[in-house]
Amino acid sequence: MRRIIFPKSLLPLLHSRAIISGQIHDPFVAGNILESLLRAYPSAHFQAHALLSFSPHHSTFMYNTLLHAYLCNNLPTHAILLFYEMLLHGTTPNNHTFPLVLKAFSQAPQYKNGAFIHTMILKRRLDSDSYVHASLIHFYGAAGCIVEARRVFDEKQLPGISAWTALLSGYAKNGNLSMAWELFVRMPDRNLVSWSAMISGYVQCRKPEKALALFQEMMKSKVRPNCSVLVNVLVAAAEVGALQVGKWVHMYLEKNCMCLSSNLKTSLVHMYARCGDLLSAKQTFRRFRDKNVDLWNAIITGIGLYGRGEEAFELFVNMSDDGIPPDDMTFIGLLSACSHSGMVAEGRKCFEAMSKIYRIEPKLEHYSCMVDLLAKAGLVNEMVQLIQTMPMEPNARIWGSLFSSCRILGDITSGEIVGKQLIQLEPRNSGCYVQLANLYASSGRWQEAVAVRDIMKRRGVVLEPGCSLIEVDGMVHEFLVGDKTHPKANEICCVLDVMARSLRVEGYVLNNSVS
DNA sequence: TTAGGGTTAG
């Protein structure tokens, strides 16, 4: 018998007929009704679960179909519970079940015991299935168990392209870009997803310029990009301020009539805002009809970045008028807008309202924004009080804000304590050592300044050179401190000299202190 | 008997 997808209009009739005639006892018929229901109503997973529960036969196919529906609706925990229910019911999982279950475990990190699935797969000898194999590698990679992922990969004689891609992605997610690149170069075949995984790896590891270069190479190889790739390109463009690249992506999407996913819409607005083109950010935002909370957050955060706090709050009101409830990211955008605009009173109100009115408990990031706001306003006592009442340990950004305040106020004693704390939190970050050494130097404590630099050297911490990027005609140029390898370095230095001289003539004095 | 993988922001 061939697979049947029942039309939406006939579903209730066919379902009742199947019950009356007793055909519902046929697992194939019951499975088809369940699948047809979920095709017609993709969000009807709870009804589908009820149908499964009342069905006389619980086939593996029915469970797999429902597992798939839960994952499509971003409900991995429900999928995991359904899998347990499946096992309790005595229904045998098959090669189609495990990729779904492994994905659910990857998406629900609170379930840390997913490794037992591997044992079940081995017992059933399903590890040779290419889908199961790639899913296992992905599962271990996402869980940070890259050694195990590699072991699974190496166990198969001829791993498929998905297995290669899953391992590549796993290395990138765990910060090992060189190994990811090695796999990308070595893999016997590449497809769009492999390119996408490598580009995404560069974006995740904060190497946006490499992501853009690889994207150019991908286009030269005549591989057509999809939404996933373009979202990553927009993120990379936003990171380095490559407005022309971002605009090119926007045009490409329109020219090819590509359907814009919510991620793409958000990334476009984010890109324009981060590249400083606020007008395009606002125009693009207005053009989109279905605005979800993420899109609103992108424009609120973007506007706030440029010190337009009041406009950010106006947008927040518009968002509420549109019936979109805020989430925790909305408040990060608003608090950050207050910080960039010096709106202390509004920031305090906003911080209070988020838990009292909107029932959103402040996370570390919200405290971080609030501390930043108070630090910039010079309200040190209030800032210290807030840090002391935080229900979690402060992060390096919070200590950094506190350190800046101490430095500005010339409070060397407190600055010393905070600076040491920062080094303890981020021992590999050269900036922490340099800031403490500068603090000592600013108060004439030269020996201690030298001692901090010595500790840094002994620990093998390399001073990361300052770097700035600029995009000219679609090309991103990178400049490091002391680096004169740029082909137009001499001309650029001449212009900078003229500018520096003009500034001196106007009475400006060079400030070399680290902020 | 049908179905399942690897890539997607802040």
Automatic annotation (TrEMBL):
PPR repeat residues: 59-93, 160-190, 191-225, 292-326, 429-463
Keywords: Repeat
Superkingdom field: Eukaryota
NCBIfam families the UniProt entry points to: PPR
Gene3D superfamilies for the chain: Tetratricopeptide repeat domain
Protein name, per record: Pentatricopeptide repeat-containing protein At5g66520-like
MF terms (GO), sorted A to Z: RNA binding
GO-annotated biological processes: RNA modification
UniProt-listed InterPro entries: E2_motif (IPR046849), E_motif (IPR046848), PPR_At4g14850-like_plant (IPR046960), PPR_rpt (IPR002885), TPR-like_helical_dom_sf (IPR011990)
Stretches of the chain forming a coiled coil according to its record: none
Short name of any one Pfam family annotated for the protein: PPR
High-level lineage: Eukaryota, Viridiplantae, Streptophyta, Embryophyta, Tracheophyta
